[in-house]
């Protein structure tokens, strides 16, 4: 079964997304926005280590290989992990808009089981923007970028100020992120939404 709830339908006056002039070029790897991020961080041993690449327009491609620590049923990826991979890919789109945003709603269809060892080929794009609301959609395919769809999602991200993280995040991680020597990650965290 698939379908999208009313809150994921952009309003009639929604705008087309506009790629930021300083967005990474198509084909360029985005890198992690935070080393400890479970989705993309390289310092997170059990994380997904998802590698996202800028596409044309406001689109992203990404890959994630299911490891044994990502199982739900024996030999199969946990559904929540697959939803995380979709969420992370969708979240990466916001860097192409140069907007900081968090997931408000994520609706996921699980179409096929995904065995351990499989590489999930993800594709996501922003479909519309209405004020602070960013509407986007993603698929994850198996067997190659043109293989059958195993998972798909529609999402609503909401633009936030950096204070969202500073006010709600645990102090020690916020301080560490603020002094991250990686200039690009600092820029993604602090300069996109002054
Ligand atoms: C110092 C270190 C910095 C680090 C910098 C890092 C930067 C890069 C980090 C990115 C990280 C990526 C990782 C992957 C993406 C996550 O996983 S993000 C984590 C998961 N998400 C969250 O934790 C969000 C938790 N929720 C919230 O904080 C609040 O509910 C929100 C989403 C900010 C919204 O609250 P709000 O700002 O008060 O906005 P609100 O007025 O309620 O809603 C605004 C509009 O959105 C609509 N809306 C809000 N929620 C929903 C919903 N669930 N369903 C439908 N509509 C909704 C409202 O109806 C409203 O619509 P309009 O009335 O304007 O038409």
From TrEMBL:
Q: Which reaction does it catalyse?
A: decanoyl-CoA + H2O = decanoate + CoA + H(+); octanoyl-CoA + H2O = octanoate + CoA + H(+); hexadecanoyl-CoA + H2O = hexadecanoate + CoA + H(+); (5Z,8Z,11Z,14Z)-eicosatetraenoyl-CoA + H2O = (5Z,8Z,11Z,14Z)-eicosatetraenoate + CoA + H(+)
Q: Which domain of life is it from?
A: Bacteria
- Lineage of source species: Bacteria, Bacillati, Actinomycetota, Actinomycetes, Kitasatosporales
Keywords, ordered alphabetically? Apoptosis, Cell membrane, Cell projection, Cytoplasm, Fatty acid metabolism, Hydrolase, Lipid metabolism, Membrane, Transit peptide
Which SUPFAM superfamilies does the record cross-reference, listed alphabetically?
Thioesterase/thiol ester dehydrase-isomerase
Keyword check for Cell membrane, yes or no.
Answer: yes
The cellular component terms of Gene Ontology attached to this UniProt record, alphabetical and capped at eight, are: cytoplasm; membrane
Q: What is its EC number?
A: 3.1.2.2
Disordered, as annotated region: 1-26
Q: Where this protein primarily resides, as one coarse class? A: membrane
Species assigned in the record:
Streptomyces glaucescens
Range of residues in the leader sequence: none
Pfam families of this UniProt entry? 4HBT (PF03061)
According to the UniProt entry, its GO molecular function terms are: hydrolase activity
The family assignment reads: Belongs to the THEM4/THEM5 thioesterase family.
GO process terms (BP): fatty acid metabolic process
Q: What's the top EC group for this one?
A: hydrolase
Tell me what topology the record assigns in the membrane: Peripheral membrane protein
The entry's localization annotation reads: Cell projection, Ruffle membrane; Cytoplasm; Membrane
Provide the protein name.
Answer: Acyl-coenzyme A thioesterase THEM4
Q: Does the keyword Secreted apply?
A: no
Output the InterPro entries linked to this UniProt entry. HotDog_dom_sf, THEM4/THEM5_acyl-CoA_thioest, Thioestr_dom
Thioesterase domain: from which residue to which, for each copy? 75-135
